[in-house]
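FF domain-containing protein
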Amino acid sequence: MKSFLDIPEIPDSSLEEPKQESEPVEEEKKEDDEAKEREREARAQASIKEREKQVQKALATSLRDRDKEREYHKRDEAMQHFNALLADLVRNADLTWREAKKQLKKDHRYSLADDLSKEDKERLFNQHTTAVSLKRRDKLRSLLEELGVGCTAHWRDVRKLIAQQTAAPTYRNAAQMEREFRDFQRDKQIAAKTALRQLLQETRSITHRSLAATKESQAAMTQIHDSLKIDARYSALEHIPDERDQIIMSYLEELDKKGPPPPPTATEPTRRAKP
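Predicted structure tokens:
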């Protein structure tokens, strides 16, 4: 008789099955983890590459800016050299660029402006001659003022006076100087008219009632002229009395149109009386 201990054990299939199913799950999980790790590494590499691109781009921009700044300084230095050359060699405002260029090229400093284009050099030359021309005009006007040349002076007389002055500026021809003289007289007369208007505004005896008074009596207009005669700004237009009278009449009409000035209380804030 066999003992129950001799009965062979029958493997329990229910216990083996879970072990067989867990292996594929673990394998799949491992693959997922590896895939995620690869994705993380790929993202990290992509981020590093993107950062490198940004750094390279920023570096390229910085280098371009540095090159631009270097070019700017080189150009600015060339302009300074060329302007200094113009100041030393071009003192005649009537020179043309073609004439001046021949003279400038003979100077060794001309090569210091090689970074400038032909257009730049010509533009700087034109700016320089314009400045020289204005300086010459101002010098002539100062001389005319010193000589007491007024709005009624004749050119033939003034020309003789200028010829006697060693400090007189030089012009290419007499016609050019005469144009400057005519401009001086024109500007002087415009300034005299402006000064007369200022005088009228300063004259308190002239009011909004003055126009009506002059229409009633010629003596009122005579009185206005008498009050203005004591000022040099009135006599400065002695050579054009009709225009002077027109300026005075226009001012009277302007005051008449405006009417009486507003009372002080209408233009100034009310002030509290001090206790």
